[in-house]
Specification:
It is built from 13 helices and no strands. The chain is an all-alpha fold and 272 residues long. Helix 3 runs parallel beside helix 10 and helix 9 crosses helix 10. The longest helix has 28 residues.
Length: 272
């Protein structure tokens, strides 16, 4: 975002301190005493659970776009996993993402990619942006749900409980890798969908914005990198529409369907 424009917005100091603290504490992983392969394994497992199952499958494809349906108990499990990613409460996350799709790459878009890579990747979160005031209007289906409200309100305490559990299981190495390193990696993997996939890659469909299909973002986000496909067919549960566009989350949805847990799955008209 241009300096002139950002100067018109008030900094969100709580978010700035929050992000800085998590990134700084993640650096403790550089100390040899804090390394263990078990801790790395915990971080990788929690990356999949919180980013793949929680954010990509739960927050995004299930709740934001309602591209398929699951029993309410399973929806709550997926939303809880997404809450563990600590990217803001589910109501805020889902509301802002719906606003993004409505105004993609125009001024009302919370992370308009035309304002620059830095802004769309992280900068937009560090200010009090106008879109924040619109969240209740875009989340009327969930804003009064007690479980969503619980996850929204107790986002940080839930993470603290996870951290304490990891400490008792494996000490500080589990906490540093399973909480701080994992959060930082999940943050940036998710943010690449807002930034990199609006700058790098190819376009298969007309989407009236800058969205691109980017293979390496798809690799680290369980299929979210096929972003042009997604913006062209926002309702589709499947983002990788060609055989080479590997979409792990779509495979997960198909698995849930085989178990009888996913139904009314919406798909784009063009798939291989």
């Amino acid at each position: 975002m241009t300096v002139a424009t950002s100067n018109k917005l008030a900094p969100a100091w709580s978010v700035i301190v929050y992000m800085a603290t998590i990134h700084i504490l993640a650096l403790l992983a550089l100390l040899p005493s804090n390394f263990s392969w078990k801790a790395v394994g915990v971080a990788l497992f929690l990356h999949w659970l919180t980013a793949g199952i929680g954010i990509t499958l739960g927050f995004h494809r299930l709740v934001t776009h309602r591209s398929f349906e699951v029993p309410k108990w399973l929806e709550y499990v997926l939303v809880f996993c997404g809450t563990l990613a600590c990217q803001g409460g589910p109501i805020d996350w889902i509301g802002l993402h719906r606003i993004h799709h409505k105004y993609s790459d125009t001024h009302p878009d919370p992370h308009d990619s035309n304002e620059g890579f830095w802004w769309s990747h992280l900068g937009w979160m560090l200010y009090h942006i106008p879109a924040n005031q619109e969240i209740p209007r875009y989340t009327q289906d969930i804003v009064n749900d007690p479980f969503y409200q619980f996850c929204q309100k107790y986002l940080v305490p839930i993470q603290v409980v996870l951290g304490l559990s990891l400490y008792f299981l494996g000490g500080w190495s589990f906490v540093i890798w399973g909480i701080f390193v994992r959060l930082v990696v999940v943050f940036h993997c998710t943010w690449f969908v807002n930034s990199a996939t609006h700058k790098f890659g190819y376009q298969s469909h007309e989407s009236k914005d800058n969205s691109r299909n980017c293979w390496w973002v798809a690799l680290v986000t369980y299929g979210e990198g096929w972003h042009n496909n997604h913006h062209a067919f926002q309702y589709s549960a499947r983002h990788g529409l060609q055989w080479w566009e590997i979409d792990i989350t779509w495979m997960t949805i198909r698995f849930l369907q085989l178990l009888g847990l996913a139904k009314n799955i919406k798909l784009a008209p063009i798939t291989d």
